[in-house]
Amino acid sequence: MFSTLRFVRAAPLSSAASKAYLPFNNTRTFSATAAAMVSISDSIKHDHKELEQYYNNIKNAKTLDEKTQWRNQFTWELARHSIGEELVVYPAFERLLPNGKEMADKDRKEHLVVKNDLQTFQNLDPENENFNKVLEALWTNLSAHIKEEEIDDLPALEKALDPKDSESMTKSFGRTKMFIPTRSHPHAPDKPPFETVVGLLTAPIDHIRDLFRKFPDDTKSQLPP
To answer: Rounded to whole angstroms, what are the CA distances from 124 to 45, 77, 165, 172?
Structure first.
């Protein structure tokens, strides 16, 4: 269902090696969100499930190094997902739904709370005595937002969308996530066009820093190849 691209975080592979599929050799593969007939709701729910899995992986990690890797992966995915929604999904609420502006504003406020939590968490050492406390506070706020979004917001949006428009939004959502920041920046604008401009300026710095962060070997990425 998904097309697969690769983003190499270390030295470029040789021409011979590049022909092989090497998912765990400093290479982060990713599944493009732009799959045939995938609705925007399905795409967002897929992200939500991944975030929950990463949260559980942090909690269940057996070593400090493993906790650090999953902390980085959780941060990376949540930062991109949140801004992707603010750039693609929330403007659609405002355009298509009678109460769309109120819905979008509510979700942006909830995002700001999560972004502030994430900014604290993203650099917190697993050995810090507040690590688990901050993680639980972050997940409590995020899971409440996810529940509201899946029960109320996304069904309302899908009713207002033609299936092809929903699929097109999925593609835009996936492309947008490739070129936006991968860390939390809660003081940045949360509406286009200003969020788009700031994101394009901030993203390259985040992506370069990601090269020097540890990630789990078997995670998937949506960074450009």
So the answer is: 27, 17, 40, 32
Amino acid at 95: R
Decide if 8 contacts 27 (C-beta within 8 A). yes
pTM of the model: 0.70
List, for residues 70-92, the tens digit of each pLDDT value: 999 999 899 889 989 998 999 99
User: Other CB atoms closer than 10 Å to residue 130's CB: what's the count?
Assistant: 12
C-alpha span between 189 and 199 (Å, rounded): 9
**CA distances (Å), 103 to each of 69, 94, 163, in order?**
34, 8, 22
| pLDDT tens-digit readout, 152-178 | 999 999 999 999 999 999 999 988 887
Please state, in angstroms and as integers, the Cα–Cα distance from residue 24 to each residue in 61, 99, 129, 146, following that order.
19, 46, 32, 31
Helix (H) or strand (E) holding 28: strand 27-31
Cβ–Cβ < 8 Å for 32, 6: no
